Amino acid sequence: MVEKFDAIVIGAGPSGNAATYTLAKQGLKVLQLERGEYPGAKNVQGGIMYAHELEKIIPDFRDDCPTERHIIEQRVWLLGDDNYVGTNYRSEAFNSDKPNRYTIIRANIDKWWGEQIRKVGGLQICETTVTELIRDASGKVIGVRTDREGGEIHADVVIMADGVNALLAKRAGLQDEAAPENVALAVKEILFIDPELIQQRFGIKEDEGVVIEIMGKVTKGMVGTAFLYTNKESLTIGIGCLISDFKNGDCPPYRMLEELKKHPVIRPLIEGAEMKEYAAHMIPEGGYKAIPQLYGDGWMVVGDAAHFNNAAHREGSNLAMASGRMAAETVLELKAAGKGFTASNLAAYKKKLDDSFIMKDLKKYRELPGIMHGNKQFFGAYPDEITAAAHNWFTVDSVDKKTKEKAIMKAFVKRRSVMGLVGDAIKLVRAVR
Amino acid sequence: MHIVVCIKQVPDSAQIRIHPVTNTIMRQGVPAIINPFDLFSLEEALRLKDKVGARVTVLTMGPPMAETSLRKALSLGADDAVLLTDRKFAGSDTLATSYALTSAIQKLAEEDPVDIVFCGKQTVDGDTAQVGPGIATRLGFEQLTYITKIEDLDIASKEIVVQRRSEGGVQVLKTKLPCMITMLEGTNTIRFGKMDDLFRAARYELKTWSRDFTGAEEGRVGLKGSPTVVSKVFVPKPRAEKAKMIVADADTPDAMAAAAIDAIFAAQPKLAGDLLARAAAGL
Amino acid sequence: MSEPSKPQGRKFQLPEHLKVYQNVWVIVEQERGIVHSVSLELLGEARKLADKLGVEVGAVVLGAESPDLNRICGDAISYGADIVYKVTDPALTDYRTDPYCRVMTDVVNTHKPEIVLLGATTLGRDLAGAIATTLATGLTADCTELDIYADNRSLAATRPTFGGTLLCTIQTLAYRPQMATVRPRVMAMPERDDARTGRVIEIQPDLREEDIVTKVLNFIADREQNEAQLAFADIIVSAGKGLGKVENMKLVFDLAKVLGAEVGVTRPLVQAGWAGNDRQVGQTGKTVRPKLYIAAGISGAIQHRVGMEKSDLILAINTDPNATIFDFAHLGLVGDALKILPALTDAFGRRLSVNRMAG
User: Fold this and answer.
1) What is the pTM (predicted TM-score) of this model?
2) What residues in C contact B176, CB-CB < 8 Å?
3) Which of A46, A67, C149, C229 has its CA 20 to 30 Å from the CA of residue C159?
């Protein structure tokens, strides 16, 4: 006998978890299917979790959610060959009762999500891959087929939360193959280290954390960024670049990460740590212009599978959770109103997205991916010149400041014409305005 | 026929590391799996179920988190699952563990007599291979370890014929149920569960049994019931001397090979003699 | 890395009734007249323990009465036993758990040894697990090192744990005998001494075949099969992931052929299907102790190391001069195994054939 559910959610990442939990909590019969051996087995994330979105779904998550450290200091570094310039922002205000950002280790969080979903009656089944969407004669999605014997399962609505590859949507002809310039490949390592050393090196207390976002020469002129996060007993370090750049360049990602770890300003922070885990992951970076069709008859797509990722602000998981929640709320509202899950009714999901920070932010930065991709000086020439400028400025050598200013400007112009510099500035301002 | 399969949840040993600072096992983030050796026994039990019809009960002793391993076994086709969990069991060595598990098997047998107990050959974390024989001895079951094949099982006469791996060959043994079997690794491949079994496993109401419930005596489980104690744990010491590096006259494979052979014969003059004698004998 | 300190076991005094347990026993494993070498290795080890304790070494030999069995009893004495308990009955011809367990339980209860050692073989581990249960005493599996705690005469049994990443020392509290199974080829083979004398105690248990449920229908000896005989090889050429692809295994087999050696592999190669698990050396495979171990393209993971580090001479070939294997190999060669293996095959071939012509 074919089992029938109110909703099937495909994938146990942040977006799928948010959708499943929200639906199950309201008493719907929900099935969540995950291809990994256990929830989180296939999930990789740099490791920052934003409280605001999670709070909307599970208000008292802080009671038992296994977060690592709450973030009290944010550093942004521009790396040169053996130096960096950067800004730090640290505030005691981040030490509130309800901190806003946490470092996390995804494996622990996903396991916790699984428990929360079971608690509200959601059915989570792992090691099961959805091979296709089942449609009725009219083309409406009425269920899924899995790779298991007797694998046909029916549902009123299917929510696809199967991650950046969005294999299912592609197979069903609902999405095109993502362009290589719209996907970044990130690699990261979790390095084990004595918590005492973390606290000493970053000047923080037991639960406090620091995040360093890194740009500059380490990406070899490719479009990309790196990061270093402090966990309870480990550090997460990673670097990511666009797939299209890896194709063109000759420095594979793992080697780039090795070079980052050896960089003279990074090495002292990670010295004595032992690698525990290495992972690679793709990140949708195409922004607003890469967003595919988001709904249809009997289906919606959420999270990374919908390219909901804000590259400029390094936000992904909160967009994922928010989109999962909105998809679930759409289902709940339609069900309450006794309406079917037709494409025209599910357009309400798109409306929710448009009215939210998700689409507003993605729209705001819609030109950024293109500019970054077409203007490699942001990742090659500028880091050199900016760090050189800082070096010049801070070196006390009896040269007057005006001469120094001139020399710095001259160096910039030499690498990139005055028009080029002005053009870059205008482009950037427009892109982030 | 009623078959009980004893399984253990273990940390995936391939992913275990030693903390560089504290020299202790880092379990954090290491996924818990069913002991790989147990899967060969579970699969064999399920094959018997397919072939002659049987009720398969999986049994594990462990912390509440071992539930995931039981559900996994159910999703593969086991009918029932029992979690034997009690703080009193903590610190049990193999003698106490086999006692506790036996008490649960006897409890199961009160309802439905047990014909075969399957255990893993050994676990990957403890590596003792002692709990299976302990259970067989306590239950008075015929003990069949390192089984490579179940040739025949006759329900009516309760006779079973198996092949057993021994040091110098394979024993073909014929015996009667009830018996305890441990399967040798590589003798079968664990199946891929059916969708129905996955649903059933996810919804199954697990039986959770305590020491009191099975009637195991308090003094015979846990640290109290264990004759052995771990008196020390340490990291293997590195050999004091590192390898003597062989330096060849030239950077060619031939020169390196020649230098290597000289170094071998210099270190083991007797070996050179043996090899030459062998060669001379035309072996 | 922490240096293992001298054993400092749990301090306790043995109750009076357990002090009558004396002597160190080895259960000698024989199958169809052939003694497993681990039993002889254990006699050597038992000798050392008994000398520390100031007691005698006992060897238990079980089987049907036969000239072979008498020879084995003599061998046991030559390898270090003071007393041989010769237990004979037709029902003991082949190993079966039930009669062996019953008989051993009786013999131990009658003669009360303080330590009982068995090989960590399929027979030893099957039997040890059963009799430790009937005797309700402590048993430590798969040991690699044995010692005595001086302050209370108890056995310090050390074994690898967690896939060989750690070692732990286990002690049996106020229970006797103390039992351990020991990995084959870990303990040194003692020198045979035919001048040694000892006494033989004959035991005829009252076994009736009709009481024994399990029957042996057949025995298919490996000698008639095509299994790799790694454990007894004098020379082993082993391959690791560094060989790159399965086709390159031929280079290892070529060298092994010239040397009359067996071929071993690491666990990843078995998992990748390059070789059967009868060739796996390491924690979850075989422990070997050849005169020469050539490790080609093996990084030296602990899981592999525990299976081969007691080899008399280890030659490691690896492209990475920092490979872990150079930390415990005796001879190291930094280079590409794919090029050096054929060169070694040629060079060994030439040297050995030259001699044949000369001789």
Assistant:
1) 0.82
2) 213
3) C229
